[in-house]
Amino acid sequence: MKLSKEEIKAIIPHRDPMLLVDTVEEMEAGDHIVTTFFVDPAREIFKGHFPGEPVLPGVYSVECMAQTADILLLSAERYAGKIPLFLGINNVRFLKKILPGDTIEIHAKMASERVEKAIATCSAEVYNHGELAVTGDVTLAMR
């Protein structure tokens, strides 16, 4: 299943400048998802991170992983319309720089879920130019 930015906005509550997913390239609800995000060089963050050598901050990569997981989870009927809240981030590793102008691909898959508490953990990976750039687990509560 492919989704545009407008279709993504119908699923998750994030909006610019904090909407960090542009497209859904593939999704099997409740199982796995692949999204993309264009790292726009015009983003304000690059004025200070870092002048002369801009790099996408690691927290943005983690937020891309979380929003990808949000789409996967909120696409399930049981969580539709909920607000996804961070409960935890674990095992995050930054392996490659992500630069302005890059388009990253984010993969996430369901790792565990406590349906009775509306809590789920997804394993996620960010790829830049086909190379693994970031990996980690995000735990979310749907409220």
Descriptive report:
With 143 residues, the protein is an alpha+beta fold. The protein has one domain (5-142): Thiol Ester Dehydrase, Chain A (Roll). 15% of the residues lie in helices and 41% in strands. The chain contains two helices and six strands, in the order H-E-E-H-E-E-E-E. The chain has helices spanning 5-9, 58-74; strands at residues 23-28, 32-38, 84-94, 103-114, 119-128, 131-142. A six-stranded antiparallel β-sheet has the order 1-2-4-5-6-3, covered by helices on one side. Strand 5 and strand 6 (131-142) form a beta hairpin. The radius of gyration is 14 Å and the shape is globular. It starts with a helix and ends with a strand.
Keywords:
143 residues; Thiol Ester Dehydrase, Chain A; alpha+beta
Question: What is the secondary structure topology, with strand pairs?
Answer:
Elements: H1 5-9, E1 23-28, E2 32-38, H2 58-74, E3 84-94, E4 103-114, E5 119-128, E6 131-142
Antiparallel strand pairs: 1-2, 2-4, 3-6, 4-5, 5-6
Mean pLDDT figure? 97
Rounded to the nearest angstrom, the radius of gyration is 14 Å
Strand order of the largest sheet: 1-2-4-5-6-3
**Weakly predicted, low-confidence segments:** none
Question: Could you say how many structural domains there are in total?
Answer: 1
- In CATH, the architecture is Roll
CATH fold topology: Thiol Ester Dehydrase, Chain A
Helices and strands, in order, run as: HEEHEEEE
The major β-sheet equals:
6 strands, antiparallel
Beta-strand fraction estimate = 35-45%
CATH class: Alpha Beta
User: What is the general shape?
Assistant: globular
Instruction: Quickly give the structural class.
Output: alpha+beta
Helix count, DSSP H or I runs of 4 or more residues: 2
Straight-line distance between termini: 25 Å
So, the CATH homologous superfamily?
Hotdog Thioesterase
